Structure formats: C-alpha cells, structure tokens
Amino acid sequence: MKKSFFTLALLLIAGFYANAQKVEFEEYDLDNGMHVILHQDNSAPVVTVSVMYHVGAKDENPERTGFAHFFEHLLFEGTENIPRGEWFEIVTSNGGSNNANTTDDRTYYYEVFPSNSLELGLWMESERLLHPIINQIGVDTQNEVVKEEKRLRVDNQPYGNLLAEVKKRMFKVHPYKGTTIGEMEHLDAATLEEFQAFNKKYYVPNNAVLVVAGDIDKADTKRMIQDYFGPIPRGAEVTRNLPKEAPITEAMTGEAYDPNIQIPAVIAAYRTPSFKERDSYVLNMISSYLSGGKSSVLYKKMVDEQKQALAVQAVNISQEDYGIYALFGLPLGDVKLETLVAEMDEEIVKIQNELISERDYQKLQNQFENDFVSSNSSIEGIANSLARYYMLYDDVNLINNEIDIYRSITREEIRDVAKKYLNPNQRLVLKYLPKKDEQ
C-alpha cells in the first residue's frame, strides 16, 4: 500500500511539473508589420520588455563589417526624447536593468523592470526604434568603446581569435566567414550617412519582434503597445539572397598563431546544417555524448584516464543558415596535436559504426530534459526564447515542444547523422599555435 501511494504521488507530481512548464503566449501583428508576443506570469512583480531585430553580421557590406554589433552600442546613445548618456540612468533609477547582444543572425535588446514600470520600458524601446539620434558624436564615442571591447575580448584574450580563424576557412562565400565584431578599419572608414542608411534599412518594425513577458495585464499592455509602436512607419521589406556554400569534399588543414597563448590547441571543424534542421538537433546530442560533463566519453578517456588533454570539447555551433561542428583539444605536456585528433576520431568512428548504449542514450535524454526545463525557468529567459523561436525558427511554440524533437531522436539517427557529417574528408583541422617559430 505504501509503495503504491508513493508511486501515485510521484505520478501526480510529474504531471503537475509538466503542466507547470508549459509557456502560454499570445502573438499578433501590428499594422506596420511588427510582430508582438505576450506572456503573462503574475507570480512575481517583474516584467521583461525585449525587441529582437532580424539583422546580424551576415547582413553587412563586406567592406563595412562590424555594423550590426556597432549598432548594439550606438542605439543606447540617446533619442530625440532621451538625452545622450541618460539611457542607463533612466533604467537603473527606476529599479531596472538592461542589456543587448548581437550574433551573425540577429540583434537583441531588453529591459527588466518592476512591473509598474512596464510603460517606461515600452516607451524606451519605441524611442530606440522611432527617434534614435545617429550623429558623429555618438559614432565617434562608440567607435572607441567597440575598439576597447575588441582589444579585451578578442585581440588580447587567449584563444580569442580561434573561432574567427576557423570561420574564415570554413566559409568561402557566405558572410559567416567574417566576425561579429568586425574589422576596426571598416568602422573607421564608414561615413555617418552609411550608419544612418543601415539604421533605416534594418531598424524597422516589420523586421522586428516585440516580446513583453511577466506581470502584465494583457488588455492594458496591448493598448500601450499600440500607443507607442503602432504609429511607427513600416519600412521597406528586407530581402536576403546570401550565397550558398559548396559542400566540403576534401580535407583541409591550416595553422594560426596567437601571441597570447602558451599551450597550443587543435580544432577539427565540420560544416553542418542550420539549427532549424532536425540533423542539427541530433548533432547537439552527439556533442553532449562526447563532452557533456566529466562523465562524458572524451573527458573520461582523454582527460581522466589517458592524461592526454587538459581540456577537450565537442560542440555544435549552429546558426540560422549553417553551423560548425567542432572538436577541440588542449594537449597535456608533450602530447602531440595529431594524437588528440586521432583519439577524438576514434570515438567518432565508434558512434558511426555502433549504437550508443541504452544507458548512455537515457542519460542524454535526461540531460536535455533538464536543459529544457532550465531554459524556461526565468521570465528573462522565456522572453529571449519567444523572440528567438519566432525570428529565427518561425515557430514560437518550440518553446514548449522543442524537447519533443530530442525525445524522438533514436540511437540509429545518432549513428546515421555522425556518418553523414563527421568524416575526415569534410573537415578542417586547424592547429592554433603560440608562436610561428616554435612549430
């Protein structure tokens, strides 16, 4: 009896837990083409106001790289109604916080406020869209800010240029070959008119999604959204016709050098499909199997048991158009980089020829279930996911059912996808070295 009662309790808790994780949302379009998503959660007096624009580094003129990231900074300078330099002061003085980030595919701005400041957040984001002041003072100021960021995060950061060195070899024609932060000489050479034209082209309501999540009243929120965003004029439609990459059919090798490192690294990189493709989800599972924690295959083998590596990692860096699947290793002592590659290849071949064990498969399922729950554990995270799934995946309900994709992936699929993408003739092997005269 006691056992049956315990089992019933667990089932009830599990059912409640599953229902509690479902994210309810409402979405609609304004007449100017701006997409709106609302998520009401009145459990805490907090609200997130966010806007994601479908513009990233891939949309830049190849001679003017860095524009998308530059605008992430520039559009905090001020507006016709927010004096220069007062954006952050307004937010913090009203108990809020804010931030922004840029990728190759999109740019995202958000504020987190006490819910009684919802209207303030909506007004500020509408100001960023409708009344930005883009002048030479702001451009010059943010140019120095971006240069300092590049020095700190890239130029002087150990291994800071590793991904850039991989990307420019993996992509020949697609703009993913560049970096998100761009080239500083391109920003230096740009005219004020070029910055203003970039803003006019991409910062339009029909190229954006507005998400309001948290402690809201939907009717009041819709009224405020209409008041602040409804009058903003629709912009010209953004069209993209980006070049396609030819498949990689022959092995590539290369070397790159970093004066900030003492320990060399090696990376084996394969071009993979968009994160919208089912195969990309399978590759995520393969990554977790290989290097997801200290009990993973590569960590146990190469770090714990064979003492060959200081660090080892497998990661699927997937984006809207393409991805890069990367195997990365840092050698321990005098272990050769070729040895690290051979040891990682050995595990890839096993996946390609043998089904992973049922135990390891269930462990992967548990990991992805946990990650899925965690991604929806905060209002800020939910707002980000709602915007991202709409803008980049064209399916907002992935916030609730993406886990079903992982649940449906079989051990056979894991084997077959590894066979399809992770072959020596489809990759770049890059040695990332401290000094040219040491190797």
TrEMBL record:
Taxonomy of the source species: Bacteria, Pseudomonadati, Bacteroidota, Flavobacteriia, Flavobacteriales
Protein name per UniProt: Peptidase M16
Molecular function in Gene Ontology: metal ion binding; metallopeptidase activity
Signal peptide boundaries: 1-20
Keywords (A to Z) from UniProt: Hydrolase, Metalloprotease, Protease, Signal, Zinc
SUPFAM superfamilies attached to this UniProt entry: LuxS/MPP-like metallohydrolase
Ranges of residues in domain Peptidase M16 C-terminal: 190-367
Hydrolase keyword on record: yes
